[in-house]
Design goal:
Number of strands of chain A: 10
Distance between the termini of chain A: 43 Å
Strand content of chain A: 25-35%
Largest interface: A-B, 29 and 29 residues
Number of domains of chain A: 2
Number of helices of chain A: 7
Oligomer: homodimer
Radius of gyration of chain A: 20 Å
Structural class of chain A: alpha+beta
Shape of chain A: globular
Chain lengths: ~280, ~280
């Protein structure tokens, strides 16, 4: 047995960055789970068909069940020989193989210092919610929450502004052992789109699990008048999850983009920094 | 038996205009059919629940199976007493009763001279098709056709321009006895939207069955280079359906709007004119 089942890293592998979009409705989230249809599971299966054994998919945002993506990013290490044969046709071939609810928008070779997860500078999400009396427009209903009461944009905006900054978001996070709940929330604002839908844009270096939906849930309680404007920011004083915050449903949420250092020379530095910060001693 | 099962027209009925949107994916079109899920069938059932017996729905555009609408219009005659009790809450109540793939955007009382079908000045459709190598974006895949070859916008536009005008569209119509195939096509143009999707806007006084999809099918053959630019207009010389025209799939098509006379005084006149023109002796 001289052949390893999975080629070793130095045995002719290349790192490939994949830009991915999906409709999360019929997926049990990104992360592979036995007997569940997941984005990573479906994607890895078709990649393997074209490129041979794929050494795992490392992803920027491990989206929950029902959450969508238009700008997800992941990377995989694949056999260099297989890659050379398909690099110019892989997007079109995947389009023919993958189901309609997941698409690979681009697949390009990157330096091994590129890490889709730890190398990301920030993730950007959008949450769509409508307060129209008729509910969500049918063609957008899969990715728009219908809210049964009118929402006040100035209240949403004022409450959102109080959450921006490098803060401890323990109130909005599911507690995990040995990991910090401090995050740098660089953007959280609301606008009313031309079609009347309210869209929150949320950007941070990283998010805890269900954090975006917890923030949106707290803001919606302000938007429809059940809570005062300062309430969401006030919860930042807590050191434990705030159980009175209702997590907004997943289907309104879409991961729209991930940003990386413009210069590949910055990949390794960023990844090392992120690994350090996530596990403070 | 002095009570008729359906109230007579002069027995306290009011005419109500309904603006309707739907995702056509899971409907067998607009028109009621036994044992099929249709938009009119689902809508009439819930209207009856709120307003009592509904004397049929008359619609502006009898969309085929799989075709969507954001701006469909229909009318119904309902009992005045029932209407008076719900007129201010009917949209919100229907939102709670109807399935997510059909919505009533507005419901207002109109003069009995308003006729959603014969009173319409024009119908406007949009057809969305993408030639991106990865196919249709997942969140728009239900209403966007994925085309496997690149499409040339200038060719599409030039070919489309040759079809505009009052012409005999026999080549693009399913022949029906005793009805004309002459239509006034007032607009047919293409643009590339910011997301890269090609969108055709098609407007006419009225359309024969599958006419929009036949026009789009002929234009796509020009757009990907299989047919010359003058070919679609050349087919207008035919007096029978052109079987070499491939009807484009329904899911790319959406009825986006219907226009009526601005002044209700024009309703009756328009309706009489339309009835006349549709059935030339």
């Amino acid at each position: 047995m001289n052949e390893p089942a999975i080629p070793s890293r130095d045995g002719g592998l290349v790192r490939v960055r994949l830009d991915v979009a999906y409709d999360g409705t019929d997926f049990s989230g990104w992360a592979p789970q036995p007997d569940r249809r997941t984005v990573a599971g479906v994607l890895a299966e078709e990649l393997t068909r074209i490129l041979g054994p794929v050494d795992g998919l490392t992803v920027a945002g491990r989206t929950d069940a029902g959450v969508h993506a238009t700008g997800q990013v992941c990377h995989a290490d694949v056999r260099a020989a297989a890659w050379a044969g398909v690099r110019d046709t892989v997007v079109r071939r995947l389009a023919g193989l993958l189901p309609a609810d997941v698409r690979v928008l681009a697949a390009v070779e990157v330096p091994v210092s590129f890490d889709a997860r730890f190398g990301a500078l920030c993730r950007r999400y959008e949450y769509r919610v409508t307060d129209a009396p008729w509910g969500a427009d049918p063609l957008a209903a899969r990715y728009t929450l219908a809210w049964p009461r009118p929402l006040d944009l100035p209240s949403l905006s004022a409450a959102a502004a109080g959450l921006v900054g490098e803060r401890d978001f323990a109130a909005y996070c599911k507690r995990k052992e040995h990991s910090t709940t401090i995050r740098a929330l660089t953007r959280l604002d609301w606008r009313r789109a031309p079609d009347g839908v309210l869209v929150a844009t949320v950007e941070a270096d990283a998010f805890c699990q269900a954090m975006v939906r917890s923030l949106v849930g707290a803001l919606l309680a302000v938007g429809d008048g059940r809570r005062p404007v300062p309430w969401p920011a006030g919860l930042l004083a807590r050191t434990e999850r705030a159980n009175e915050v209702v997590v907004a449903p997943p289907h309104g949420l879409t991961l729209v983009g991930v940003r990386y250092p413009a210069d590949p020379a910055g990949y390794a530095e960023r990844a090392a920094l992120t690994r350090n910060r996530r596990s403070p001693v």
